[in-house]
Every structure is written in C-alpha cells, then in structure tokens.
Write a structure and sequence with these properties.
2 domains; 13 strands; Rossmann fold; 7-stranded parallel sheet; 6-stranded parallel sheet
C-alpha cells in the first residue's frame, strides 16, 4: 500500500494542524516499517525529521498561504501526480482533498466545524470558503477521521454525514510535556518571554473563539475583589479578529498586568506551563483542545470552558465553567489559586488524564483506517 500524506501544514511557527501532522507522521514511522509513505511538504518548510526508508518526501513550492493557487493546483495537477506516483490512498490532515480520484482513495481529518457553528468568530470570506470546502471534502472522502466524539456528532448533525463513515481518533501530546524542574532551564525561559512573578496562563492563537476578552474581564474582576499578585500571560501568535483582545486590556487598564508573549517555541512550552499557577482555557468551541492536555501533563491545574470537545478531553481532571459567564470564570480561577486541596486533586487527576492519550495509539488507529479504505478499494 502506498499512502500519500499532505504535510504542508508543518511550518516553522507550529500550531494545531501542523503539530498534528508532524506527530502523526513520526508516530506512523515508529510503528509501520512496511507501508510505503510519501509526505508532501513545502520547499521552504522545516524538516519533519523522518529517516525511515519507507518514508520519502515530495517537495513542492505550493503552500496553503495562497488559497487560489493552492486550490487550482489541488484540483488540476495533484490528482494526476498522485496517479503517476501510484498512490493507493491520499490523507488530507485538515479539510482539503483532491476531489478528482484517479484510482486512489481518500481520507480526510476534520478537526472542528467552527465555520459552521460559530461563523462570527472567523472572517466572513474565510468562513464561506471553509464551509464550501468542508462540504465538498466530506462528501468526496472515502473515510473521515474526527479528533473527538464532539466533532463526529457535529459532522452527523450539521452536515448529515453517515455515522459509519466517521472514525473518532483522539489526538495526543507531543514529546517533552512533563513538569520541568531544572532551575536553569526555567530561568532561561522566564527571561526569554519576560515572565515576571506568578502568573495565570493561556496558550493558543489569539482569536475570538478562544474567548480571551471574557478571560481578561474575569481576570480584572478577580483583581478588584482580592489582592492578586498574578499576571495573566497570553501565549500565542495573533490569529484573526484579534483587536478586541488588545482593546479589552486597554479598556480595563491592564497593560502592565497582561503579558503577550507572542509565539512560543514548542521546546519552551513545557517550561512556560510548568511555571504557571493555573491554566485558563475558557474557549467557546474546540475540536479537541490540546493545550488542556499539555497543561495537565506539566502539572498545572486547569480551568476550561464546558463546551465542544473540552469536557470529553478533560474528563474530571479540570474545573469546567460556562464559557460565557465572566463571573464563573473568575470564581473558578480564584478557587484554583487559593484552595490547596482542589489544586492537588486537579494536578494529580490531570497528570493521570494526560497519560491516557498517546501518538502510538493515534498511529495504530489511523493505519487501521488506511487499511480498511484500501481493502474496500480493492474489493
């Protein structure tokens, strides 16, 4: 079997889908020495670090940055190139697929349906584009992988996808997510990102569905009520529609108390998590919510929004709150910061919960999907 995986999401400023693709490829390389894999990568992108003889790169200059050129390339050139390569199966790790199939089957991973469920949280044109492309891909795909049962249910309910067409395969943590105790490493990371004093942490792109305006308002409310030495650290690059986040900081006079680190390198994230007193993730919608597990694995008590896939991923290891209620977010943060027994319970449960997810399992289950689709194609 010859599988082609689109790895063009792997970039030098890694976030969700790029990390998913990179971890999946590395895990497949670790468990599958017999299947032939070709991974499609961008010429100026980072090396995924795969050296197994059954894995080979296919380098292109066509990235996802230019949707018009990329879509034309995907619909016109890619199908014929896949056929010439002798591909049996093509895996699109996020929505996009070649709709013309010339002797090969397709699998697509759908991480979330934010453009359908919360269109106000994405740019208008992007939302229209993603809704259109998602509909086309889920109809065309021979099998769909969903990151969570919540996303699987959204696909069935919103797009009418037959349940049997979808396989839920939970994502997992990358390597290195554990409590960091080395004082020198902690101090170096603290200096790099100007993390002074104790802090409450958020990690993720700065965009509307992360609910950061309400988190900032909850933080301001907490500061008014109690003597709070903690700063609020928002760690992540700017996404779309981010201006209201910065405006909220200015409106509430928190310019000295809220720290924007910008993008944090993956190798620094475990230390950034480990130094936090609490992790706040009040997102209004997630297809999986990987930062919740990352924080748990680093021994940080978690306050998270009771929405989307987060309850499914967090289990009983986080303090879940209604994401639209500023008062509830503030109260949960206060409890996590001040109640020693609760902190200890959440920390212990979080460490155990984070170990329930592994990329080895993701790779095994994904390979099962490949094999099932390939067998059906040959029948």
């Amino acid at each position: 079997m010859h599988v082609v995986v689109d790895a063009r999401y792997i970039s030098r400023l890694q976030s969700g889908i790029g990390l998913y693709t990179q971890h999946l490829l590395r895990a497949l390389a670790a468990i599958d020495p017999t299947t032939r894999y070709t991974y499609l990568t961008v010429s100026d992108g980072p090396d995924p670090g795969i050296r197994q003889p059954n894995f080979s790169p296919w380098v292109t200059r066509i990235s996802f940055e230019n949707h018009l050129v990329g879509d034309l390339w995907q619909s016109s050139y890619l199908p014929f190139r896949l056929a010439a390569l002798g591909a049996d199966l093509y895996h699109g790790p996020a929505v996009f697929l070649p709709l013309l199939k010339l002797g090969y089957r397709t699998v697509v991973t759908i991480h979330d349906l934010v453009a359908f469920l919360f269109p106000e949280t994405v740019p208008t044109k992007y939302g229209i584009y993603m809704r259109w492309m998602t509909r086309l891909s889920v109809r065309s795909a021979d099998r769909i992988i969903a990151d969570s049962e919540a996303t699987r249910e959204d696909l069935v309910r919103q797009l009418g996808v037959p349940p049997e067409k979808i396989r839920t395969i939970h994502a997992a943590l990358g390597t290195g997510y554990e409590p960091v105790r080395d004082p020198a490493r902690l101090e170096a990371v603290r200096r790099s990102y100007r993390l002074e004093g104790p802090y409450i942490l958020f990690v993720g792109n700065l965009e509307p569905r992360k609910n950061l305006v309400r988190l900032i308002e909850a933080y301001a409310l907490l500061r008014r009520r109690v003597r709070l030495p903690h700063r609020l650290v928002l760690a992540g690059k700017r996404g779309w529609l981010y201006r209201p986040i910065f405006q909220a900081v200015e409106r509430l006079g928190l310019q000295q108390e809220v720290i924007f680190t910008g993008y944090v390198a993956p190798e620094d994230l475990p230390a950034v998590y480990s130094m936090a007193e609490a992790f706040a993730f009040p997102s209004i919608y997630e297809g999986f919510g990987l930062p919740v597990l990352e924080a748990m694995a680093c021994g940080v008590p978690v306050v998270a929004g009771a929405s989307g896939s987060i309850p499914e991923v967090a289990g009983d290891a986080a303090l879940l709150v209604p994401p639209y209620q500023v008062e509830a977010i503030a109260e949960a943060l206060h409890r996590v910061l001040t109640e020693a027994v609760l902190r200890a319970e959440l920390t212990a449960r979080g460490l155990a919960r984070s170990r329930a997810f592994s990329w080895e399992r993701v790779a095994i289950q994904t390979r099962e999907v490949y094999q099932q689709v390939h067998r059906r194609g040959r029948a």
